[in-house]
Design goal:
With 203 residues, the chain is an alpha+beta fold. The protein has helices at 77-81, 152-164, 183-201; strands at residues 27-34, 40-44, 51-56, 66-69, 88-89, 95-99, 110-119, 121-123, 126-127, 130-135, 175-177. The radius of gyration is 16 Å and the shape is globular. The protein starts with 26 loop residues before the first strand and ends with a helix.
């Protein structure tokens, strides 16, 4: 029996078994862990590749866009060295937020995302960048190329979510976010994360 190419006899691991994208760092694959409708934070289980319940959302703040990671990326020394004040990367795959016109209510989906910029986030002193992208071929957002082309209100919502999603009354903020950066900078961060992946998991 002849199988198509590529063909996977078993489900690939979302982090290690999928490609970074059709044209990285411009167009990447995004594996979605959380949707804007989720009251629970899910995170990929690194050993099995299944989604694991990380924790219920601690505040009333919900993710305003699709949220996941880029396969075969890793935030290690290269990513950490790009952010002022970081002690290193957070040792996770590179996070990505994807904007789409139509609501996508399912997690554990793969999509093609066109990178437009990012947010430089420090979490506990570690670099935890959030790449921002639009769904490729989206009828409303598909022609966006730069973060500055997006409505500032939408970018502000993403920024507010990550600034507050771990915050509880009476606690000091755990994260800090600098000025949003351009597509060019986002491409550099993605390339660095792919280099970190090869150092950590390649070969």
């Amino acid at each position: 029996m002849k199988f198509p190419t590529p063909f996977f006899r078993w489900r690939p691991h979302p982090w290690h078994g999928l490609e970074a994208g059709p044209k990285p760092p411009d167009v990447v694959h995004a594996y979605i862990e959380i949707t804007p409708f989720d009251l629970v934070k899910y995170e990929i289980d690194k050993a099995t590749g299944y989604l694991r319940v990380d924790r219920p959302q601690r505040t009333s703040s919900l993710p305003p866009v699709l949220y996941g990671f880029i396969p075969r990326t890793y935030c290690g020394e290269h990513v950490g060295s790009m952010m002022e004040g970081a002690t290193g990367g957070d040792l996770d795959p590179l996070d990505i937020c994807v904007i789409s016109e139509q609501p996508i209510s399912r997690a554990e989906v793969i999509l093609n995302a066109r990178v437009v910029g990012g947010l430089p986030m420090l979490d506990g002193g570690e670099a935890d960048d959030k790449i921002i992208a639009v769904l490729e071929k989206d009828h409303l957002w598909g022609n966006i190329r730069e973060l500055t082309d997006l409505p500032s209100t939408l970018v502000g919502r993403i920024l507010h979510y990550f600034t507050t999603y771990k915050a509880l009354p009476g606690e000091a903020p755990q994260v800090s976010i600098g000025e949003p950066y351009s597509r060019t900078r986002a491409h550099q961060v993605i390339r660095a994360s792919m280099d970190d992946y090869e150092l950590e998991h390649g070969g």
